[in-house]
From TrEMBL:
This is TIGR00282 family metallophosphoesterase. Pfam families: YmdB (PF13277). NCBIfam families: TIGR00282 family metallophosphoesterase (TIGR00282). PANTHER family: 2',3'-CYCLIC-NUCLEOTIDE 2'-PHOSPHODIESTERASE. It comes from [Clostridium] ammoniilyticum.
Length: 261
């Protein structure tokens, strides 16, 4: 069983990278199941119905979210129908959405759960460690957690805490792919951040001029960059016992010819 997890998809460029490369990657790596973090997919913040349907059409089997989940209020109109969408379990309790889902993939039950970090994040979100136990003894063959968080220490800590109960803990949110992929104690696949699928020449997907202007202390709105793209993700392979046996980074710069590894 091979699972592709795609890092934060940002704006139009990120969606174009999905259209250009997902089918090819799925075929070249013989992927069975695709998960993507899509909380920045619609103009950099949130997700609308059009783009949810786009990802479904392009072959994304499960979509996870994060701190921008409800930035597009349109999501409230269709969230109950979005049967591929998973939202953070430690968001404010008044907000709607399913926090964990099971997908049947060739007879294997794959559970996907979404969590938000609290270190250096909005204080509206409760500590994921206060709630994670509620999700560790559920029924599935493979359990994958998307921990959408700022601090690598929090992500690593969660992976070690869950290592005997889940098969993958994958970090999102910082939009920078880290080089610390590993199989912890031969039990759980881990990476601090899967990376960003979006504009390559940017600051986390935003136009560089607008970011620099704001960092210099001048009033400036962050604009989503529209230059060449990149595709970031990881491929995890599981054996017949549903144990992770490898995790491999995928990083494609649109300026270079794509080749399968």
């Amino acid at each position: 069983m091979k699972v592709l997890f795609i890092g934060d998809i940002v704006g139009n460029v990120g969606r174009q990278m999905i259209e250009d490369y997902l089918y090819r990657i799925r075929k070249d790596y013989q992927i069975d199941f695709v998960i993507a973090n899509v909380e920045n997919a619609t103009h950099g913040k949130g997700l609308n119905r059009k783009h949810y349907d786009f990802f479904t059409f392009e072959g994304v089997d499960c979509m996870t979210m994060g701190n921008h989940t409800f930035d597009k209020k349109e999501l409230l109109d269709f969230i109950d129908e979005a049967d591929r969408l998973v939202v953070p379990f430690n968001q404010p309790s008044i907000l709607p959405g399913v926090h964990t889902r099971v997908f049947n993939v060739k007879g294997t039950k794959i559970r996907v759960t979404n969590a938000l970090g609290c270190v250096f994040m909005d204080n509206r979100y409760s500590n994921p460690f206060d709630h994670i136990d509620d999700y560790l003894n559920l029924e599935q063959d493979i359990h994958i957690i998307d921990i959408h968080a700022e601090a690598t220490s929090e992500k690593i800590g969660l992976a070690y805490y869950c290592k005997d109960k889940v098969q993958a803990v994958l970090g999102t949110h910082t939009h920078v792919q880290t080089a610390d992929e590993r199989i912890i104690d031969k039990k759980v696949a881990f990476i601090s951040d899967v990376g960003m699928t979006g504009p390559y020449l940017s600051s986390l997907g935003c136009d560089l001029d607008s970011v620099i202007t704001r960092m210099r202390g001048l009033s400036s709105k962050f604009l989503i960059s529209e230059n060449s793209g990149q595709f970031a993700g990881v491929v995890i392979e599981f054996n017949d016992k549903h144990q992770p046996i490898s995790i491999e980074r995928v990083l494609i710069n649109d300026d270079h010819l794509y080749r399968a590894s």
